[in-house]
Each structure stands twice: as C-alpha cells, then as structure tokens.
Amino acid sequence: MKVFIGYVSLSGNTEKMAIHIKNRMKAFGCEVYMERLDTVEVDALKDFDLAFIGLYTWNLEDLPYEVNEFYEEIDQVDFAGVKVAFFGAGDLTHSKPCAAIDILSDKMMRFGFDVYDRVLKVHHESSTYAQWRKCEDFAEHALIWGSNRKKWRFFMWDRMLGSPKYQKSVFLLRRVLDDYPIKCKGRSKKEELIQELLKFGIF
Ligand SMILES: Cc1cc2nc3c(=O)[nH]c(=O)nc-3n(C[C@H](O)[C@H](O)[C@H](O)COP(=O)(O)O)c2cc1C
Description:
Blueprint: E1 2-7, H1 13-27, E2 31-36, E3 50-54, H2 68-73, E4 83-90, H3 99-110, E5 114-115, E6 120-123, H4 129-146, H5 151-161, H6 167-177, H7 187-198
Parallel strand pairs: 1-2, 1-3, 3-4, 4-5, 4-6
Helix pairs in contact: 1-4, 5-6
This protein binds flavin mononucleotide (FMN).
C-alpha cells in the first residue's frame, strides 16, 4: 500500500508525530513517502492509497503560513475518494485546540476527500512514551480504515510478524496479497509458496 505523509512543523512536535507514523507504516510493509506540505501539490495525493496530513496551529483561525498554497489549490480538482487522516500538535487547553486541522479538513471534505473521522491532536508540552504510542495506534487504525477490504490482512500481518516461526510465511503472504505480483520462475517455487499458504488455510 502506498502511503503519503505531508506535514508542517515549526518547533518539531508535529514532525516527531509524522516520524512515528512513518515508522509504524513501514513496519506494516507500506511504501511511505514523507514530504513537507509546502513542497507538495495537492493533486499528488491522488497517487496514494492513504495520505496523512499533519499541521500545527499558531493563531486560532489561521492556518500555518506554509499551508496556504496547499489550501488554495484544493478547489482546482475533484478529489472524490482520496483518503486522508489528520494529525498535529497544539495547545489542548486552548478553547479551540488545533483549529488549523479543522479548517483544512473541512475544506478537503467539501472537495470530496474521504476524511478519516478520527483526528490525532497531541498536546505540545508532553512528549511522553504514551503520546508516541498514541501516534502509532492512530496510524494503525487509519491504515485499517484506508485499506478497505484488506483489513484482515493487516490483522494477520501484525499477529504473525510477532512470531519468528511465521515470519517467512508472512513475507510470502504479503507478496501474494498486498499488491505485489509474484514472479515464480519454476513450478517448485510456486509449490513451496502454496505449501506455506496452506498452513494458514489460504488455499
Ligand atoms: C504564538 C503561539 C500561538 C499558538 N496558538 C495556538 C492555537 O491557537 N491553538 C493551539 O491549539 N495551539 C496553539 N499554539 C501551540 C502550538 O500549536 C504548539 O506549540 C505546537 O506544538 C507547535 O507545533 P510544532 O512543534 O509542530 O511547530 C500556539 C503556540 C504559539 C507559540
């Protein structure tokens, strides 16, 4: 699965969240592209199965200045079905915490983006293990949401990766099921693969 992570960050909190999300996606075998949002064209999001968008908030009703161009570009194309999940750091004691996320996600929703209903807002002064765990948990759930029919694959992938006994089978399973066409040179390789999959009742 191809995953995009676009973010802006001044003091580094949103960037750290982006890195945790990226690492989690890679652990799940996703192809991950991470860029700053001010260097990205909105249209590029169409090339991905799932996009994570991360931004900070500095003034209540304002987007970060680096996101202005991205925001303006949104009305140029139809983005129906492009899946997006939002995250960002902010002051959660604020009356409207992380308002910039809501501004951007509202506009993206209006232009057809399929926006994940769970948003990850992390308090700027806490950089604890629990906060980073939240990022990973959010990333996993967004991935399951974004992968539609592939939910069970991630479940199996996660469970089996933890077991050294099954790691080879997990690798083979992913090659077959996760959009990677398998190229078998000889019959023996293919049979070996089927044997592995049989263990899991796939065939
Ligand atoms: C001048 C200033 C204004 C801020 N205004 C808001 C705000 O309106 N809402 C909010 O949730 N956080 C606000 N914050 C908190 C920042 O969003 C927070 O520090 C965040 O971690 C910055 O993200 P970054 O580390 O990724 O740059 C403000 C911080 C500063 C310094």
